[in-house]
Protein: Complexin 4
Amino acid sequence: MGFGGGEEKAEEETPKDPAAAAGMTREEYEEYQKQLVEEKMERDADFLHKKAERATLRVCLREKYRLPKSEQDENMIQMAGDDVDVPEELLKMVDEDATEEEEKDSILGQMQNLQNMDMDQLKEKASATLTEMKSKAEEKCSVM
Structure:
C-alpha cells in the first residue's frame, strides 16, 4: 500500500549536484564559488596586514622602552612584506604619550609635581617613616 515507497522517491528528487541544489546553473555556481574564494583571500590578506601593523607598533614600542625583541613580531612583519606602516591614529597616540613623558622627565615637570603635592601630608609621612626606623633600630640594637 505504499509503505516505504515514498522514501525512495525523496532520495531521487534531491539532486546530487550542488549547483542544482542551490538553484543555479553549473556556470553560475562555479562563478559563485570563485567569488567566495577571492573574497576569503582578500579578507585573509587584510587580516594579515592588520596583524603586521600591530606587530610594527609593538616593535616600535619595544625599541622605545628598550625591551627585548620578539621574533614572532619580526616574522609577522616579514610575512606581510616590508611595506607595512603603523596606522596614523596609533602613531598619534604614541607621540602624545612620548610628549607627556618628556614633560614629566623635564625639570619643569618635576617642579609642577612638587607644587601638586600636599606638603603637610609629605612631612607626616616622612616623620612617621623616621620614627618607625628608629623604633626598629632600637629593637635590634641594644646600645641604642
